[in-house]
Amino acid sequence: MKNAKKTIEVKVERTIPAPAGEVFDAWLNPKVPGTPWYESKKLILDAKVDGLFYWLFGNGTPHYGRFTKVARPARIQHTWMSRYTGGEESAGTVTFKKKGDGTLMTLVHTGLPDDDGGRGHEGGWNYFLDKFPKRFAKPTPKKKKK
Amino acid sequence: MIGMDQLTSVLTAISHPTRRAIIGQLAHGPARFSDVAKPFDTALNAVTKHLKLLERAGLIERRKQGREVFISFRAEPLRQVAGWMHEYERFWNERLDSFEKHFQAKKTKQEKKP
User: Fold this and answer.
1) Which residue, among A13, A16, A89, A126, would best test binding to B if mutated, counting the most B CBs under 10 Å from its CB?
2) What are the backbone dihedrals phi and psi of residue A63, each rounded to the nearest 5 degrees, phi first?
3) What is the nearest CA distance from B50 to chain A, expressed in angstroms?
4) Is A26–B89 a contact, with Cβ atoms under 8 angstroms apart?
5) Tens digits of per-residue pLDDT, A20-72?
6) Ramachandran angles phi, psi of A20, nearest 5°
7) ipTM attached to this prediction
8) What's the mean pLDDT in A109-137?
9) How many CA atoms lie less than 13 Å away from B13 in the CB half-sphere?
10) How far apart are CA B51 and CA B57, in angstroms?
């Protein structure tokens, strides 16, 4: 019997003001803010074809994966498993293309379960609200002391 | 499940920095119109327009208490937007925002060098 679980794809793009090679290298550097590996509680990262990664996110969620393509400076591909993928293998692909003086970075995450776990009603909601006021609010002007 | 029309109006409402700042302010508790408008340099009728948009999206509501009107934040539409987004959509957007910011800061630093 075939597994007919509904899956979705997430696609995110950004233009990074640096050459593709530099962006590619930075993406695999856990010290660079914004990489998936940044601020891990525990990290094992072996970024080569068939190399594995394990990282423990700040909220205690472990992530596992295997690199399937590491082609500098154009593409990184790996599998990706966590509780948000329901224990199933999903796939992450990051491509880097020259765009003007910078690099168009496209991240596509496929095979994500389209269920409440993935959509993270509870977790996502709390996460979003926690971040929201801090992220968007302008600092309240300080009252002058008399 | 959130409807597309409501989703559009909520996303439109939170797309403007002033409106996000208003929400941020109201997230601490209800406030009078004059208090909401105080931190902004914009004209009062501009603030009124922002509030109307937020109200249309269901993100704020007005309540009369005696002679005063208090404006308060309603989180439900944001919860629905958050539920509409996949956990990883949020995650990757956050990550790529900081990744981009890192490079922009690096570029600015390099440009400042004599």
Assistant:
1) A16
2) -125, 140
3) 15
4) no
5) 999 999 999 999 998 989 888 999 999 999 999 999 987 788 999 999 999 99
6) -55, -40
7) 0.72
8) 53
9) 25
10) 10
Instruction: Transcribe A10-38 into DSSP letters.
Output: EEEEEEESS-HHHHHHHHT-TTSTTSTTT
A26 contact residues in B (CB cutoff 8 A): 99, 102-103
Residues contacting A7, CB < 8 A, separation 6+: A90, A110, A111, A112, A113, A114
What domains appear along chain A, each with residue ranges and CATH number? 7-133 (3.30.530.20)
Give phi and psi for B12, each to the nearest 5: -65, -45
In degrees, rounded to 5, the angle at the alpha carbon of residue B57 between the alpha carbons of residues B51 and B59 is: 65
pLDDT band at A133 (very low <50, low <70, confident <90, very high): very low
Chain B residue numbers with beta carbons less than 8 Å from the beta carbon of A129 are 75, 78-79, 82
Q: Tokens for A123?
A: 């977790």
3-state SS class at A5: coil
- Taking the CB of residue B103, how many other CB atoms lie within 10 A of it? 23
Closest CA in chain A for residue B89:
A10
| 8 A C-beta contact, residue A28 and residue A35 | yes
**Could you tell me if A21 lies within 8 Å of chain B, comparing CB atoms?**
no
- The reply to whether omega before A139 is within 30° of 0 (cis) is no
Does the domain made of B4-93 have the CATH classification 1.10.10.10?
yes
Q: Can you read off the two tokens belonging to residue A112?
A: 């994500």
Which of B39, B87, B107 is opposite residue A84, by nearest beta carbon?
A: B87
